[in-house]
């Protein structure tokens, strides 16, 4: 447990909040988008529409037994909230149950035509296709860094920090991440255009412990890293590029990717999404992307890169409620990399902490050093200085939720 008393959880009934907007507007739109993007039966589509309608004022419905591994666990989770409205239960519970309910409605676990169909697959595929130019640029740069290491035998610490920034900002797929070309008179068409425009982004990182992470990773003390992965698409490509650099540069011996066992939160990455991503890189017919994909595939085959899944990662539980077997497994890591907004919310139990609270006093329950790479997309944050909060709030009233600000928070 955290050292500090637990504050109240965020709930959807808090008027005027992003939480309320999510439950009453964003979640219904997601349910309806599932209808529009898939070829489900009229009966399934009708149930999805009913779910979308019920979210604003309706009550939680029980989960039907769909013979899934986590059905009994969800039955237990739901006991606490029987007879309550979607708006009145903790926000993180409402969201995770909403996505789990979509799978039950669409027969994801049931034998038959719809079994194993990812209702969000179209968005995942489009996310990769839309970012292909950025992917090729990034793969080209990582290949160059790996080649330089093989030639010179020295770790490029700037490259390591740059890839940490990409892992942070990976959910931005537009080319605004890339610096304008200006280098040694080389024509832009063949220039190293994948250099990250670090300077323009640094001001949007409200806590930046990247140097501490770099120092740990280059100390020779870390043999294994565990990533708690966030989204598929370009963000997963950014994560995999960091993974490739760490393994190819011999900074670590082994990396675990902890992935979701089923679709959730629209774009959260599963094991099949990692394979879909490497297949996409190979199918791009771009040699830079193919080379990186082949290295990743070789690391998977050799056991240097381990793809792992667990139903805890799709549960509504806070990270301090992690089962013992999983916590014991994480004691083997030298660094835990926690990606994205939803995972950050779970680190904090999705509660109303004071924004200046020391994050180390909350995540003291973790069994290893941790770095959170998180763009802010919800009204939950800690570890910020009051003067920083005051300044950013003046310039951007939506700073907590619009994904334009980020943190790299390290806890030793």
UniProtKB/TrEMBL annotation:
Cofactor: Mn(2+)
Record keyword Hydrolase present: yes
One Pfam family hit: ARMT1-like_dom
Catalytic activity reported: beta-D-fructose 1-phosphate + H2O = D-fructose + phosphate; beta-D-fructose 6-phosphate = dihydroxyacetone + D-glyceraldehyde 3-phosphate
Keywords assigned: Hydrolase, Manganese, Metal-binding
Span of domain Damage-control phosphatase ARMT1-like metal-binding: 22-390
Alphabetical list of InterPro entries matching this protein: ARMT-1-like_metal-bd_sf (IPR036075), ARMT1 (IPR039763), ARMT1-like_metal-bd (IPR002791)
Domain of life (superkingdom): Bacteria
Family listed: Belongs to the damage-control phosphatase family. Sugar phosphate phosphatase III subfamily.
Protein name: Protein-glutamate O-methyltransferase family protein
């Amino acid at each position: 447990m955290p050292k500090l008393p637990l504050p109240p959880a965020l709930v959807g009934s808090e008027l005027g909040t992003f939480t309320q907007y999510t439950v009453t507007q964003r979640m219904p739109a997601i349910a309806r988008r599932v209808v529009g993007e898939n070829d489900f039966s009229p009966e399934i589509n009708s149930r999805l529409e009913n779910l979308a309608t019920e979210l604003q004022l309706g009550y939680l419905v029980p989960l039907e037994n769909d013979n899934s591994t986590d059905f009994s666990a969800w039955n237990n989770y739901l006991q606490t909230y029987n007879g309550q409205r979607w708006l009145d239960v903790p926000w993180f519970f409402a969201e995770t149950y909403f996505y789990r309910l979509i799978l039950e409605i669409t027969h994801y676990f049931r034998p038959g035509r719809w079994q194993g169909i990812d209702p969000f697959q179209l968005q995942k595929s489009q996310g990769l296709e839309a970012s292909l130019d950025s992917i090729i640029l990034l793969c080209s740069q990582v290949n160059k860094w790996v080649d330089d290491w093989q030639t010179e035998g020295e770790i490029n610490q700037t490259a390591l920090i740059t890839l940490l920034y990409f892992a942070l900002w990976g959910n931005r797929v537009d080319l605004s991440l890339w610096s304008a070309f200006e280098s040694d008179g080389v024509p832009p068409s063949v220039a190293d255009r994948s250099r990250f425009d670090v300077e323009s982004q640094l001001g949007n990182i409200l806590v930046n412990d990247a140097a501490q992470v770099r120092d740990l990773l280059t100390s020779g003390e870390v043999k294994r890293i565990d990533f708690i992965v966030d989204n598929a698409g370009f963000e997963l490509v950014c994560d995999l590029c960091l993974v490739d650099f760490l393994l190819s540069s011999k900074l670590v011996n082994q990396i675990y990717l902890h992935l979701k066992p089923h679709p959730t939160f629209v774009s959260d990455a599963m094991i099949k999404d990692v394979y879909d991503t490497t297949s996409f890189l190979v199918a791009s017919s771009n040699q830079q992307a193919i080379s990186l994909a082949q290295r990743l595939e070789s690391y998977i085959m050799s056991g240097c890169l381990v793809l792992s899944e667990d139903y805890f990662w799709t549960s509504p539980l806070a990270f301090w409620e992690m089962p013992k077997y999983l916590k014991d497994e994480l004691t083997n890591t030298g660094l835990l990399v926690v990606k994205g907004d939803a995972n950050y919310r779970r680190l904090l139990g999705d509660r109303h902490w004071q924004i200046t609270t020391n994050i180390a006093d909350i995540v003291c329950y973790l069994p290893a050093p941790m770095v959170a790479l998180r763009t802010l997309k919800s009204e939950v944050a800690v570890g910020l200085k009051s003067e920083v909060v005051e300044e950013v709030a003046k310039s951007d009233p939506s700073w907590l939720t619009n994904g334009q600000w980020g943190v790299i928070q390290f806890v030793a």
